[in-house]
């Protein structure tokens, strides 16, 4: 059962081939066997999952199961889950039991899904390798010496290893797409505002967005149907109709205009990744697409702009961890200042501290105009690049990351790590949707094809990805897992 997609499992449940309890129990057992060597879960909620499965089976008996009824999922440990530890990968929140569910968690519960637990992640979603977690790094299921990507590395690894058919991630600068690429699964970052951020622990609020990570575009579409929509508790969620994302998956791609940004095929792109991506583009040509070279001239400014804006917002968001209200508190503080200083010194890891320092600096008097305001102006130009491109092409394609998964410990220099995000970060700055789709294997390391579309174009992106998955089998390749 661990090899199946959500759609296949949904059919199996509907046909009565197995119950949700049987499915859930078999995945929990697999997690127990396989995860000690992967470390993709921080918390497994086995008992609760089995109870939820029984409820789902009862509903099905009564003929009340929806499209997602009885299907198991996992949540990146950044989504608040009532009564369950929600750590954000940080010592700061190691003792934090969320008192409520995030809106997406609530919606997926109502849709009848089962939560198997919470997946590992870079601390407060800061990172591209999952090495910044308080709970230790996650191993890539394709090769245990490699990183799974980050920051949603636990979700990506768990899906790739067949521990759970789908998981949720969040993407502030690539954290769904890059780990999806490194682990050979499909991951969608929706348009900013498409999904409620309520109950999602904030990193950089103008960039953060939740999204599905699964084997196929079809599975992502099924999840989007339950996840998307306006939420009165998140003022940045957009009041706009939610389409049925599964409806147009099979629409033919005849005449599709595909733009290839020249900046996404330049220096720094590993030749073997480029070869795989160009092969994928050829598949689209054979499906009737027209390929057009385009330019996104401000691409090289995306990393510098992001690494001013994201730390600035993070420094503000993370000021709430003060040892007073929730989370870690240092022992025996002598006064308030000592409480703040030691709590934060003990609770945060190095990368988080680095971002808080950078963010506090760029927001401080005298530097705000030079850094933060400037970065916002650059952000506008980057967004305009995409709007211009989408005035003459339907989608853009390129690599999700400049390399395949790299060795654990090989990117000790933070700037080297930040350069990983070159193809993903601009998308968050512009607020547009992007999906990464398995598109090759190089030395048994997956390559991800990134497809980008205009604001609220995720239904079309899913269609473009799905038709490719009907013509190729990269998404069906599985890592060999030692059990
Ligand atoms: N790697 C980027 C960062 O460290 C993006 C992370 C993310 O999308 N959450 O900020």
End-to-end distance, in Å? Answer: 15 Å
Q: Averaged pLDDT, please?
A: 97
How many helices in DSSP terms? 15
Walk across the major sheet and give the strand order: 1-3-2-4-6-5-10-11-9-7-8
- CATH superfamily placement of the domain at 6-249: Amidase signature (AS) domain
Structural class: alpha/beta
* H/E topology pattern: HHEHEHEHEHEEHEHEHHHHEHHEEH
What is the helix fraction of residues, given as a range?
Answer: 25-40%
Number of strands: 11
CATH T-level fold name of the domain at 6-249: Amidase signature (AS) enzymes
Share in β-strands: 5-15%
Q: How big is the Rg?
A: 21 Å
Small molecules bound: glutamine
CATH class category of the domain at 6-249:
Alpha Beta
**Quaternary structure:** single chain
Enzyme class: ligase
Organism: Kushneria avicenniae
EC number: 6.3.5.7
Family: Belongs to the amidase family. GatA subfamily.
